[in-house]
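I am still getting used to backbone structure tokens and would like to learn alongside you. Label the sequence line and the structure token line clearly, so we can match residues to local backbone shapes. Would you write everything just below, so we can both look at the same thing?
***
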Amino acid sequence: MIVRPLLTLSLFSLSATLWAQQQPKPSRPVKEGEIDTQEITVEKSRKINLPPANRLFNKIPSVKPSADQRKLTYEFEDRKLTIGDPRIMPGVLSPAATQVDESSGFSNYVKLGAGNYSSFLGEGFVGLNTLSNLSLEGSVRHLSSGIGPVDGKNSSQSDTRVRVTGKYLTDAFKLQGDLGFDRNAYNFYGYSREYAAKPSFDPDLIKQRLNTVNFRVGIENAKSENAIDYSLRTGVTSLRDRFNASETDWGTNLNASLGISDKVIALIAADAYVTQRSDGSIVDNRNLFRVKPTFKYTSSLFTITAGINAVNQTDKRQGINDTRAFPVIDIDLAPIGNVHIFAGVDGDINRNTLRSLLAENKWLAQQVVLANTVKSLDIYAGSKGSLGGGFSYEGKVSYARYRNFSTFNNSIPDTTKFAVLYDGGLSNVLTVSGQVGYVLKDKFRSTFKADFFGYDLERLEAAWGRPQTTATWTNSYILDKKLFITADLYFYQGIVNKNFTSNVLYTLKPIYDANVKIDYFLGKQVSAFVSLNNIFSQNYQRYLYYQSQGLNFLGGISYSF
């Protein structure tokens, strides 16, 4: 796959200056470093591995929801806007965890691999079940490329991850604790060849390193027949980079449901985040609290969810203490078989932290300006369902209004790093998306998804760094539980960036990125794998001046025990 980095933003003074140059003067005096209440768009990281289950559509709800139907699937990710995936993963494709044949009785594994660009992969997983209700899991993974697409080791990169998880299960509840460490090392290699030839060029100054430690503990209901279902989780994440920028983020999430009658369920979601970012002279204390009570009515023909989303955000440095309430309405009709027609309206305040920005673009400059995204309104409608014969589909049209819509553009004067530029006015975004999926028993899965974005920004010249069209086609095939093949294709088009130093506007070339991975089991305990990435060998730029690796491959062997 391809690893598109993410970094800190332009020097605050430079970023603030650039932001000010592109927007009209506010109607009131603005303190230095202050930002209008704005909106930002962030999208989830893209994975090349095909998901294990097809979730293109929901099953038609039964007339009488059972306790199992009330059981919620909880996600403890920060809420993110989904306006154009801002990145493609760069570098060598990260092979999925070894797909162990369950009938073999082996669940632990070690994996070793190597490839071009001086790449190395080391990975391992161990699970211990010493007691019937207690389990421990540990994993470690290291993937690195000693050289990169330009200037050899000056564009190298490495990622190291360590995870430890403990689970304690009783008849009434499940208790889980997670401890993790991530180390990401890479370089700002988007410089010109003339700059690299200067005697003053120092490779040590282009290095970046992110160290992230996170700890979480949670408890959730284990009895599916209970009328009350719940999940409570809290944890702390600490991030630090090579330039002594840091961020500490404490988040707590509660999700619960209560069955009022056979057709009515009461739902509650609540989040609390306390965050502090330090970067040189900048110290940000930013908090966000959210409570979202809703009621869900289910019948054989339709489902209606209605409620309110109340959110409070504070920013001590910016002098912000803002509380807003957004309507939440979703209607799902099932007039014919497995075909659904849905429509709704909602809104939210989406957190934008140093960690979330780095998850989008790791080549950020120092002292990035942080501001949350306010999605004041999102009106959507569409259809989804099963067409029979293994085919399913979903189509959706969304019209959303944002404040503080975020974009990524090269900073001034150091164009090797990126600033986050916010549109302080009202930004309207039209999104048309559709996907089709096909499943052939347990052997073959295929999903094609396309998104088209129309940006109407009030103050920014363009939606810098965000594509107008994205498409993905993912496939997986299993042969006799011995041969596993996954293949995917990505397409990005319409990405625009500007060098504000030279005042030159760039429209990046369309991106075509194809990848294939093959796993073959040589026996009950030994398997071999090979992955081919960027098969078209297109040294494209997802971000201006950052060339991707060409055709790259990784091969190796794994042992299960």
Residues 285 and 316 are 6 Å apart (CA to CA). The longest helix spans residues 12-21. Confidence is low (pLDDT under 50) at residues 1-70, 72-77, 89-100. The chain has four helices and 28 strands.
